[in-house]
Amino acid sequence: MSTEAVLVRKGAYYDSVQLMRVSRALADTPGVEAAMVAMATDLNVTVIRDLGFTVPEAGPGDLLIAVRAHDTKAAVAEADRQLTTLERPGTATSQPPLTTRSAAARGPADLVLVSVPGEHAFCEAHDAVLAGLPVMIFSDGVPVAQERWLKELAEERDVLVMGPDCGTASIGGVGLGFANVLSPGPVGVVAASGTGAQQVTSLLDWAGAGVSHILGVGGRDLSAEVGGLSTLRALRMLDEDPATDLIVLISKPPAPEVARLVEEAVAGLRTPVMSALLPTDLTEAAEQALRVLGRSVPEWPSWPGALREASGKTLKGIYAGGTLSLEAAAVAGQGDFVDYGDDAYTRGRAHPMIDPTLRVEALSRAGGTDVVLMDVVLGHGADPDPAASLVPAIAHTPAAVVVSLVGTLGDPQDLHRQAAALRAAGAAVFVSNAQAARHARSLV
Amino acid sequence: MTVSTRARRTRIHVTGAASTAVRPVLESPRRPARVIAAFPAGVYLEVRTDLEPSVIAVITGAAIRLPNSALLAGPLPHVTVGDEASVGDRAIDLGPLSLSVRRWWDPAPSLAPAEPGSLAGAAAILARPAEPRPGLDGNGAVASLSAACATGWLLGVVTAAEQLIGLGPGLTPSGDDVLAGLLVTLRHVGRAARTERAVWLADWLGATVTFDARTRTTPLSATLLHCAARGEASPEVLAVLRGVTGEQALEPALNRLRRLGHTSGADLAQGVAIGVRAVLSLGGRR
Amino acid sequence: MSPLSAPSNVITAGAGLLDEALAAQAVPTTPVDWRPPLPGTAEALVKVLADPRRQAANELAARRLTSARPYLVGVRRASEVLPSGTFLHAGPPITWERASGPMRGALIGAMLLEGLAGDEHDAAVGLAAGEIALRPCHEHASVGPMAGVVSPSMWMFEVRDEEHGGTAYCSLNEGLGKVLRYGAYGPEVLDRLRWMDTVLGPALAATLERTGPIDLRSLIAQALQMGDELHNRNRAATSLLLRELAPAVVESAPARAAEVLRFINGNDHFFLNAGMAAAKVSTDAARDIPGSTMVVAMARNGTDFGVQVSGLGGRWFTGPAGVPDGLYLGSYGPEDANPDIGDSTITETSGLGGFAMAASPAIVRFVGGEVADAVRATRSMYEITLAEHPAYQIPGLGFRGTPVGIDVTLVARTGLLPVVNTGIAGRVAGTGQVGAGLVKPPAEAFTSALLALSGAVSDPFE
């Protein structure tokens, strides 16, 4: 007979990915029926309640441990053991840097990657800019006024600020955040959208074209408030980069006054610039880039569904990538789309590219008359084996499932293995999100 | 029926980065390989393949990033010369490790167009005597090579190169290092300065030195000549080339290069100096 | 590095997963051990960090603090410095009603010493009635250890900053055991103070006239290399000072030289008070720089722990003084201890004391713990300070300068509070010293200073 326990640890902080790993390890412990260890954000409290637990009063700065097990005491002890191993062991003479300022003062770094919760990101990014280091702000939820302020300071200090909410960047082949393993090549990307950049660059990689750099600028950079400061700087940097022969700019349509600035800047560059304004068919954008480079456009690989080609009535998009979701909605021209990577779903929990829980739930709610369209994004930082958690849900749903599998052959997840597993579970798989959307539409 | 008596070892999966030069070998079907040299910061593997590079350097962050390198994220396993290994199917198996690549770097990135005047200044800096002296300082064949390059006289270049291949002691003989420095300089600086004749010379010289390099010098040096013929080099050499075209400061980069190895860095720098002089003089007679 | 080439080392602040993804690509990283800031400070931090004056102001403050050149120039009777009808005391302002046992004991002792009360009871009544104005030492260019009580017939070290021209004072050290600064006021305490008034003070004043100014910066730098941290261990510094003074003492007060020298020699902490005045004059040089978030004073009155910040003038920000954690003398225990007291935290404020623990392996015998703890304490303080002291260096850390210039924004961001070494006073008036150890300052003193800084700047985001 199992009992349950919900404990509140006041003011104990852990990052959401670490907690997801602890939750998983705990749930896999023999004798444990259900377990979740998470910061007590509204979203996480709801999820824990949905698992049937009664949650006591707690705030987003507190840690919740919820277990249902034969021996809750042992389970909680196991949770504590797991949490203790997360603490970095300190040795007598080493003092880890506690701020970006301190880390920068220690020497060798030439780039800063900030992914602390959004309300605290300013402090770390500010340290980076003051130290004269370029910074990628992966965090979302940074107020736009702070973004503008940081980027103005960055102009003074002559450094690039990527983000906030910059999910993807790649500099000289080094993938930062969610990026794919890409071959070096002639295309430089300036992207206000991380997953948009991932789709375009992974297709370019498939076509053998390769990528020099991806400079993310954050979704709001081209707004009137921010004024495109990072976009303009990124364009200049790519123009000066000898490895870049073509620049692709991926963004929502800029604010009119910013659009004018960008046009003027582009006119002054030696390197040709191609814009892909969202929502747009990103596959078409990649193909156009290939044509500009004088390269041939290949057949984009796909693995048609093995089992259910049955049609449905309603198209449901359950996406991890916001831009991919918008693109698919635009291409399909119908259906209900939810972007699980949105702020509302990521407060105090890991991004759906890492934590499949919310989308697995969404799959379990799909009915026999639904066609489910979803993205699975591979690459650095993403779930090391996304098929493992999605396959059972895909196999069980009565709905038809179409997957847009964004990634390259070099990605750590082994794209062929992922495609085969998803296909065996009954999904139709496409490396082009636009093609996936068209296929899904054809099933409705 | 044969029964394998060797127990299957469970492999430790590790990741790292690699030069795109080794990508063709890595992505081919698996081939046997053998450890031909082992140092604390790097292990050289000779792969049984017709592809080049056929020697792959598996290194840690402390080693020189040769153009045929795969860089491990962690420590090297303990292996000794003669140990078996394998390369292919997207992995390098060495000792207990199986290395897969999570990042590729380009060992032959293009240079920015050369700033006017920067080449002449660079040639003067490169010509200054410095320590350590190159291994073939004062050698007649080097002087002939330099003179023939400056006039674009292919037969003279090839004749001198023939004498230099494999000349000198060690894993990378001085003669080969001079030729490698020259080859990458003619190709990259030639292109950056729009001196077609230099690039043309690089093509022919490259074809000459790679033709029978495997029989003329050490396996590692032969592979590095193949790389150089394609314009592939270590970051230290590429930094000097960027210094030559004015993208960054030349002297610090040159000092770093010259400090590599016993005389390897100085030999490479000598090749670069010959190449820059050649590009300058060939550019004048287009 | 050209603008766009593969990063050679990436600082990662936040998700460990993104750090691991870089490591998997064989890219070296410098991970930040990030924690959320102290509760309630997130908004203020952003505002204060964005204050355009801050960086230059802090650079100036740290430069002034570390470039001060304190010289011991004289010894003066407090009556020359003190306003009439006033006693000074340690820490932020306090009333008789809120004063703790040792503070009350020291004030009573001062009343008796000055002949303002016939006995202990009269003294307490007079003090409660407000017959004497009680003012913090810090408001009068002074500092005092423990209770820090200064009355007119006490003598004070006079230290001048030859770089910036400031002057600071600190009373003369009475020695250990039953002493006024620990709240004792028995006859032997008062007798000693009278001897100091009539013999020690005048002798030292004459001595310093003969020696001329003594360079305390250089003396402190030497003492650090001889195993002092200059708060709880002053043995080397006292010896060095005694060496400077001895011949001149003999010359200027031949009749009293033996007892004066014996007194100084018998007290390993004799230098502490001169060092505190040196620290005070150095931190005062960094005061009143608009926009600076650097701490210029930390002080306790036995009830409250207070800090002052360069950019906020003479305002005190306080929290309850904690009880030190350490080793107790004889049969005393934590229940006998008074909350933290004294201006001696000026040493930590200037990069000495707890901040220089790594220089003083022997200190672990006074405060408990292992030598490694002392090294760890110093290393951790670099995380909350603005500079490294150019003259005060630690041999064991490769002659690295001590961490100096506490920044309230860094305290709030890291949650790391200054490490303070201290003596422990008995809680009952008249007991004296009961131990020594480490004390944790209250976080709210720093967070309220930060909130005040944020209240003083206009919103940069509007």
TrEMBL record, chain A:
InterPro entries: NAD(P)-bd_dom_sf, SUCC_ACL_C, Succinyl-CoA_synth-like. One of its GO terms (cellular component) is succinate-CoA ligase complex (ADP-forming). It holds the Pfam family Ligase_CoA. Residues 318-441 form the ATP-citrate synthase/succinyl-CoA ligase C-terminal domain. One of its GO terms (molecular function) is succinate-CoA ligase (ADP-forming) activity. GO terms for biological process: tricarboxylic acid cycle. Signal peptide: none annotated. This is FdrA family protein. It comes from Nonomuraea turkmeniaca.
From TrEMBL, chain C:
InterPro entries: AllG-like, OXTCase_su_AllG_h-dom. This is DUF1116 domain-containing protein. It comes from Nonomuraea turkmeniaca. Transmembrane segments: none annotated.
